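Suppose you are handed a protein chain with no further information: no name, no annotation, nothing but its sequence. What can you learn? This example shows the usual starting point.
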Amino acid sequence: MLLKKGDYEGALQVAMNALETMRGNGSGSETDFATLTNTVGCCQLNLGRTALAAQNFADAYKLFRGLAASDPTGRKGQLAYDGVCSIVDEYLSVGHYEEMSPWIDHAEELLRDYEQLPVAEKKVVESAQAKIDLLRAIALQHTGQTREAAKAYNAAAKTYYGRSGEGRLYANKYLVAANRYNEAADNFRDLDRLLKKHDITLTLDNIQHYLLPKYRANVGANRKDSAIAVGKQISNALDSAIYAAKQNDAAELATMYDTQQKEAEIAQQKESLTQQRLIYTGVALVLVMAFFITYTLHKRESTHRLEVAHTKLQHAYDKLEETTAAKERIESELRIARDIQMSMVPNIFPTHEGLDMHASMSPAKEVGGDLYGYLLMGDNLYFALGDVSGKGVPASLFMAQATRLFRTLATQGMMPAEICTRMNDALSGEDNQSGMFVTFFLGLLNLKTGNLHYCNAGHNPPIIGGGEHHGDFLEVLPNAPIGLWPGLEYQGEELESVRKRPLFIYTDGLNEAEDTEQNQFGDDRLLDILRHTHFDSAKQVIETLQAAVEQHRNGAEPNDDLTMMCIRIS
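A reasonable first move is to predict its three-dimensional structure. Written in structure tokens, the prediction is:
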């Protein structure tokens, strides 16, 4: 359903319908239920239904606790911790400061549970505890408990996270609330370096979240020159941010709704959102420029002029916050879209004598471009795994097309090379004006004989177990990715038998996974792990690699979608 501006009811209905569908057909994981229940609570809180929001948050918390307790690897525990912290942030965003404290306690309970696990990492625990202390400091400060707030802040400030650039920026939410503007302004000195380090562009959101608070801190600290410099930076960044926002609005809206039935409504929503952003950001730009002109002409009255300009800029800032609320609701819908997209790929795998098969997909953003699927017809198993160029909204739409074509053509009993040729004809040419493509590995396995026909369309070569080295990259022909050029004839290959030889297929989100220093996981490490991992089951192989990638990332955000599939016949 297309969300109208301020339509929390619409978002609530989508989430509740998704929950009802999953309950009705028995689909959806505990993670899906926890995430959607949490989303329902967020919508109700923003609609002023605080009692219903509290009940849904409580239900989500029970699900989060169950997830954490069922996973000895700690990964779901960290997911549960993040989910509870999002509840704290939601109460903070609507100004319900007293309701923050119980949820901060719940986050700390989950952290204590994670800390007891053998796999718990000390650095992760310390950073999470520091964030809890900062959230507690913010809540206490806003409820008038200033001494306790300062104590919680001081505890966080002594940690490695509290001294880091990221931690000091997060601490500014407390420092500004406590009128400790000089300390906040000092913390903001590293902002430009951190934005450059993490390759963060100055979008409207980032201007709001980073530059405007920096401006307010310097004004509060009476650092006029610094405030002027930040104001100029805001002025210079607004043009490109407005342009980027216009480009992104259409793609974000198109992902969430049925474009065939709602084209007119999407256009209206996009135009309204764009116009309001242009109006309010234009007001902010005009006010900033007016401030600098006034300051230059009346330098003797600079202090008074700065205060007047700051008041006007704060008004524009408040208006900008209102317009970004619509985008935040869109992001909530994208999270729901991710759950729906995840339900499009199979999480139940075929049961056939001698067959062991498992796969998993983890998008880097709310929605992604990786895909996998299978089709079992008698003793023949079609299976495929692919990686669409790019990430996010456009990739997810292209992924849906590729998935549909694979299943349609496989049901006709074609060979893998012919399926790839037909898919390329359908996805390339004039209709593909954006130039998107998908790397694709497609196999046809006879479960009786072990014979494997396959076609590799520009994808990472799979790894096949057994042999002299107990695992090697499969030799593949250099076919082009699907969607680049029309009229290509794809070449297939054949292995006489793959019995008792596990076949592992993956996207480059595995071997190109990066840690905090941007070091990649690498092909050599991947091959070494598979060669030295005793095969118990296909699921065990995938979970082993998931744990290895998480350990390698060491807290870094995923830089690409990650999808894996493992197949073995005895």
